Amino acid sequence: MNKFQGTGVALVTPFNTDGSVDYNGLKNLINHLIDGGVDYLVSLGTTGETATMTKDEKKKVWAYTAEINDNRLPLVAGIGGNNTLAVAEDIKNFDTTGYSAILSVSPYYNKPTQEGIYQHYKYLSEISPLDLILYNVPGRTMSNMSPETTCRLAYDFKNIIGTKEASGSFDQFNQIMRDKPEDFLLISGDDPVTLPMMALGAAGIISVIGNALPKQFSDMVRKCLAGDFKGATPAHLSLVEFTRLAFAEGNPAGIKSALKHLGVCGDTVRLPLVKASSTLAEAIVKEIEKITVVA
Length: 295
Fold this sequence. Notes:
Keywords: Amino-acid biosynthesis, Cytoplasm, Diaminopimelate biosynthesis, Lyase, Lysine biosynthesis, Schiff base. Its main location: cytoplasm. Pyruvate binds at residues 47, 206. Its EC number is 4.3.3.7. 47% of the residues lie in helices and 13% in strands. By secondary structure, it is α/β, with parallel strands linked by helices. It has one domain: Aldolase class I (TIM Barrel), CATH 3.20.20. The chain has an 8-stranded parallel β-barrel with strand order 1-2-3-4-5-6-7-8, surrounded by 6 helices. Strand 7 (185-188), helix 8 and strand 8 (204-207) form a beta-alpha-beta unit. Helix 1 packs across helix 2, helix 3 (84-92) runs parallel beside helix 4 (114-127) and helix 11 (240-247) runs antiparallel to helix 13. The chain is globular and about 50 Å long.
């Protein structure tokens, strides 16, 4: 389980100005993150604009990511949806070469009951060739996976090894930490609450802002893993404003604006998303320069 402790990064998918996948930009990003000291990579989660990509594009991005990573870091693939049988087929057809786990979001739009969520993951667990990480993000799915359901899945299926929790509820985090199996990973799904969640015992973060600031963020997370929360607090606080700006006009428009400034890749997003406004882009640049000067 240690391979998924620390800083995971949910990769953006770089696009060329014509909207096609920018594979050179993706290569730059992967090397930027590895050089920045992150612990693992997540390919084609929400931040990767997966909802706008074709199956063929996803297949190529997963394969290219594994090729460029070249087993340097553990890789996780984001494979989820609200049609259980279709998600199961995607998992069955997934080329696992280079990948260690699958991150699968709780079904969205349908608003399943807790029993429906349990049965969805039970079905996926029984067919998946890789370990599974649950993903609870009620702000996007419009349904919450309760701590009871999370822990029930954790105890019933050994290949369900953790949960990315983005509910924003510390009551929920507390219950999961109290009731989960010892080796089940609670992973932060929100950058701003990483430090306090790790103080409760969370294993780390699957980060968005780590795309742009991998060294600064992973250094902070490593201090948390070592129990040095006093030492981690200044870094945590220094990232508060950048994080706020990165999400001010939605994800990943803000973080792609930051990556463009850093020369990693462009800031093109696919409709219905739009680029960060010029006002926001300028504010992001100023904040990056402030952080990197301090670092």
